[in-house]
Amino acid sequence: MFKHQHxxxxxxxxxATKLIVGTLPPPRFSIGELKPADVNxxxxxxxxxxxxxxDALFQLKLKYETTEIAIIQRKQFLISxxxxxxxxxxxxxxxxxxxxDLGMQxxxxxxxxxxxxxxxxxxxxxxxxxxxxNGPEYFFRRHLKDYNLKLELVSNEVPRIxxxxxxHLECHSERSEESKQENIFSSQNKRIIKTxxxxxxxxxxxxxxxxxxxxxxxxQKNPKFNTLDFRMMQYREFF
Length: 239
Prior knowledge:
About 25% of the residues are buried. A 6-stranded mixed beta sheet has the order 3-2-6-9-8-7. It has a 3-stranded antiparallel beta sheet with strand order 1-4-5, with helices on one face. The chain has helices at about 25-30, 50-60, 70-80, 110-120, 135-145, 175-180, 205-210, 215-220, 225-239; strands spanning about 1-5, 20, 85, 90-95, 105-110, 125, 150-155, 160-165, 190-195. It is globular. By secondary structure, it is of the alpha/beta class. It has one domain (about 1-239): Uracil-DNA glycosylase-like domain (Uracil-DNA Glycosylase, subunit E, 3-Layer(aba) Sandwich), CATH 3.40.470. Helix 2 (about 50-60) packs across helix 9 (about 225-239).
């Protein structure tokens, strides 16, 4: 059994308002066997599309190589846009060494709600995938149960949008009558966190993209329109 440990700590700038939330990078990042075009940072796989999408949207002129400069470019962009990255899976075990979410077993989740409490300016989570089994939204729903929280549907259109209410302070049920009367746990002590379940920026999700009615309509209007164009159109609104 292969122990797949997340190789990176969460990267959350001090004034971050959004967090990108995925699961785990490919196993080669955990064992240090990167490809020449990989970047040794979150979503740095040369097979992935997240940085390619952001590069095209913001004209970043990123380098795709295993160098410190490539890492710095990405960190500078995230800081300038007040975006952090905090994948939800800390570790998992695999019988087969691949990047499949479904292949993960004995999964250990990060305390994402704990990170949100430490970073009070964050109001949006950008899931790089939906609610399919072992996807980021799927795990986050499971994680929220530990806090007796749940997602409420805002929009059922792709990308689906949910929200939940998070207390600034610990909302213990054992509150004194005096505290209740003073209403110190009123709405001003809470904040709404929105979640956006983006279409996964991976080649594995291309088949799902191709079956979407909206993609088919756009493809019919413009035969040159492809799955990367579709993601760029979707991501532009939320980044």
